[in-house]
Amino acid sequence: IKEVWGWGAIASGPDLPNQVNTLEVNATSGTYELKATTASGVTEITEGSTVLHKVWTETGAFQVGDPIGSNSPYLPSGAKVTSVGPDTIEVSAAATGTADPSTGRQSLFANETTAPIPYNATVAEVKAALVALPAFGPGDVSVTGTPGNYTITFEGSYAGTPVSLGSTESTLAGGSSSATVQNLTKASTPGFQRCRPVNGDV
After folding, report:
1. Strands 117-118 and 141-146
2. Which of 118, 113, 121, 110 is nearest to 167 (CA)?
3. How far apart are the first and last CA of the chain?
4. Pairing relation of β-strands 51-60 and 31-45?
5. Across residues 100-114, what is the average pLDDT?
6. Quick one: pLDDT band at residue 168, thresholds 50, 70, 90?
7. Residue 127 three-state SS
8. Residue 170, Cβ neighbours under 10 Å: how many?
9. Among 111, 130, 115, CA closest to 23
10. 177 pLDDT exceeds 80?
11. Contact 192, 11 (CB under 8 A)
């Protein structure tokens, strides 16, 4: 038996913001898609306008070609960014709605979906599918691992910037088919106890 005389906390594991992802594919046939959310923020939008004003970016950065969405009905489905300015972005279709929400703040996010990826794709094929998206260049994505088990790291212009990755299991088949993505985050900080010997314990 030891007597506890202090406690504290120690950092454990590497610091991994969620631009690091693991991908596990379980299937014997078919394809899946990866969806990368590269930016999120809030904006003001005026009914009938193609310009979103005062974009406050929370993570990532909006880029030309990004499909964008929001939590309001004022941004049409399928809208894409056509130009980016210091405090505005322009979209490819006019906003719709019956009221002017310009005095309110709307959530906004940019996400892109890859072309279909074979269930047994090589790391090079997975990287090629991601690099083909408008947001990424060849130096922005690193893929390691083996077919079915990948680690995907967004680096380059996305180094240290959270990129959330998800999957769409379009035609995967065979057993309990799935394509599971885990966005890795900073390791937890477990507690510890310091003790001292009591009654001859060592």
Report:
1. unpaired
2. 113
3. 10
4. antiparallel
5. 81
6. confident
7. helix
8. 12
9. 130
10. yes
11. no
Taking the complete model, does pTM exceed 0.85, yes or no? no
CB-neighbour burial class of residue 158 (10 A; exposed 0-12, middle 13-18, buried 19+): buried
Both tokens assigned to 74 = 């004022």
* DSSP 8-class letter at 151: E
pLDDT digits (tens, 9 = 90+) for 73-92: 778 888 889 999 988 999 88
pLDDT at residue 101 is higher than 80 = no
pLDDT at residue 47 in the model = 76
d(CA 166, CA 196): 48
CB 112 within 8 A of CB 38: yes
User: What 3-state DSSP class applies to 119?
Assistant: coil
- How far is residue 124 from each of residues 28, 89, 93, 115, 158, measured CA to CA in Å? 19, 33, 35, 14, 19
Look at the block and give the residue holding tokens 């985050």.
185
Q: How confident is the model at residue 103 (pLDDT cuts 50, 70, 90)?
A: low
Nearest to 23 by CA among 156, 162, 154, 166: 166
